[in-house]
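Protocol step 4 of 5: obtain the predicted structure for the target chain.
Materials: sequence only (see below). No template structures provided, no constraints applied. The aim of this step is simply to have a reference model before the mutagenesis design in step 5. Sequence pasted as it appears in the construct record:
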Amino acid sequence: MKIAVPVANGVLSPHFGHCETFTILDADGDGKRITGSTVVDAPPHEPGLLPAWLAERGVDLIIAGGMGQRAQDLFVARNIGVVVGAPADTPENLAMAYLEGKLASGINACDH
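Step 4 output (structure tokens):
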């Protein structure tokens, strides 16, 4: 499984479309562990670009602080799961919390 987390200043970016980088974590869902990690520069912000861009990288799930409904729908259309309302934390901590079924999601920080 590949989990993408939008990052700014080393932690989850509150709005995925305006992050500096994405950390893409390789995870073993059965063993509940992270097996690898890659940091990639985010492409320029263009509506509708990120779902295709992350799908090309084999991403299965995105953990975000905030994301508009249209973007969520585009991710789901590409078979990429979406978790919104995640707290500001490191990508590794967020991915482990997800794998352990302990990721607390809050209010979607995006209103569009």
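Step 4 remarks: The first strand starts at residue 2 and ends at 8. The chain has one domain: 2-62+69-99.
Proceed to step 5.
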